[in-house]
Hints:
single chain; 146 residues; alpha+beta; minor pseudopilin epsh fold; 4-stranded antiparallel sheet; 1 helix; elongated
Amino acid sequence: xxxxxxxxxxxxxxxxxxxxxxxxxxxxxxxxxxxxxxxxxxxxxxxxxxxxxxxxxxxxxxxxxxxxxxxxxxxxxxxxxxxxxxxxxxxxxxxxxxxxxxxxxxxxxxxxxxxxxxxxxxxxxxxxxxxxxxxxxxxxxxxxxx
Length: 146
């Protein structure tokens, strides 16, 4: 009579665990070096989406919208009048290095979505590895990440 074997032997199980451990040992250092850059990109994209929301809200409500940056606390806030429409904080290990829009650390959009301060401006975020992303805001109200 033939016996049907089902399952894994102890040796097969131990070899599989060893292979997984080796692969994890190779992947973890890459993940650790990848994480600060991911957070940097994420922080820059959050700021840009807040700028876009403020611009769209200014057009929609036919009112001025402001995005202001608090560099010391690593936060930003979009508002229309006294109403906050979005606020955010930088991810861990990411700092708002600078925010320069005309003569202040804020940008305003008018009811047509155009930057009121009549000049291009930018906000720069930096990670703990020294890499930076710059969020440009043009006089037309458009923004992009460099």
